[in-house]
């Protein structure tokens, strides 16, 4: 499989080609979303974005529900604009857009995408490492999202 990615900033550890989101939507067979929910990503995938996708493409959302406009997704799936979708998160969780429930070209799971032993163990170890960093070493954890909020104490 040829892997591509779209990001506002280049990811130095990623060796795959970086495209604009528009380019990625036009080229990808599978679009898997991995972004935070921000004003810029609410919604990231709307009717216009879905229209840029290939008719044989599949959209996967395991990130945050409101990143995808579900009403637009239902219409795109019904019209054959895209071939299918897989959702583990929902725009108005725990509610699921009723149109999604009627479609055979969508797979819906109840927000359990990380429910594997390996994923849960890794999540637990991240917590342990963060607790050790703060409580035993007196430093911020390596994966702190907003170290600037701590000011001068930020010592990654």
Q: How many helices?
A: 5
Describe the oligomeric state of these chains in a short phrase: single chain
Q: How many β-strands, per DSSP?
A: 6
Q: How much helix, percentage-wise, in residues?
A: 25-40%
| Largest pleated sheet | 4 strands, parallel
Average predicted local confidence, pLDDT:
92
Adjacency order of strands in the biggest sheet: 3-4-5-6
Shape: globular
List the helices and strands and how they pair.
Layout: E1 5-6, E2 18-19, H1 21-27, E3 30-33, H2 47-52, E4 58-61, H3 70-79, E5 84-87, H4 98-101, E6 106-108, H5 117-136
Parallel strand pairs: 1-2, 3-4, 4-5, 5-6
What would your notes on this structure say?
It contains five helices and six strands. With 156 residues, the chain is α/β, with parallel strands linked by helices. The strands form two sheets. It has a four-stranded parallel β-sheet with strand order 3-4-5-6, with no helix packed on it. A two-stranded parallel sheet has the order 1-2. The mean pLDDT is 92.
């Amino acid at each position: 499989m040829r892997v591509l990615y779209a990001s506002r900033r280049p990811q130095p550890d990623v060796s795959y080609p970086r495209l604009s989101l528009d380019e990625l939507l036009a080229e990808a067979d599978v679009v898997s979303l991995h972004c935070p929910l921000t004003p810029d990503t609410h919604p990231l995938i709307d009717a216009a974005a879905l229209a840029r996708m290939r008719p044989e493409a599949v959209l996967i959302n395991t990130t945050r529900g409101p990143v995808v406009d579900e009403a637009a997704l239902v219409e795109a799936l019904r019209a054959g604009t895209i071939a299918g979708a897989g959702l583990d998160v929902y725009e108005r969780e725990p509610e699921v857009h009723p149109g999604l429930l009627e479609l055979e070209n969508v797979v819906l799971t109840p927000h359990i995408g990380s429910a594997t032993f390996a994923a849960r163990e890794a999540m637990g170890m991240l917590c342990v490492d963060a607790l050790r960093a703060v409580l035993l070493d007196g430093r911020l954890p390596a994966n702190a999202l907003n170290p600037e909020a701590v000011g001068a104490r930020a010592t990654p």
